[in-house]
Amino acid sequence: MEGAMADTMFNPGEALADALHAPGPAPDMADQMALYGWLVGRWEMDAVLHRDDGSTHLGRGTIAFGWVLGGRAVQDVWVLPGVFHGTTLRIYDPGLDAWHILWNDPVRQVYVRQLGRARGKDIVQEDGGTTRWTFTDIEPDRFTWRGERSPDGGAAWQLLAEFRARRIVD
Hints:
Layout: H1 3-8, H2 16-20, H3 30-37, E1 41-50, E2 56-68, E3 73-80, E4 84-93, E5 98-105, E6 110-119, E7 122-126, E8 131-139, E9 142-149, E10 158-169
Antiparallel strand pairs: 1-2, 1-10, 2-3, 3-4, 4-5, 5-6, 6-7, 7-8, 8-9, 9-10
């Protein structure tokens, strides 16, 4: 096969991980992929989860980010033992100049769809008014990720969770 179709073919005996993972961003989209590409690697995180009853849960977990789908997406796995074990697929959409964010947590049966965009120095992921997740304090070796909920459609925001991550492997 020639052209783009040949790029999508893989050996039927190839493991799923080999077919899924990519060595880096797709060359024709490298600039756009940079918004989330800096996350690729392994991270440790300290988590503070804010419950509806006002109590908090403290925990420590791990995150792994990698290039997938021919370098046209970034996927991660977040593990906070006893709380969640899920994955996010982040896919850039040139028509929207935004990222489709698809979070899946089979432990809690939580499935979320958002759009992600740069906002100043931060990256903000929103679902249209009720939740937003923000990457902030971004440095090559650390970031803070805050989750918030708005019961009134965006007039006021309540902190749900805060994760402080440190890079452990590039």
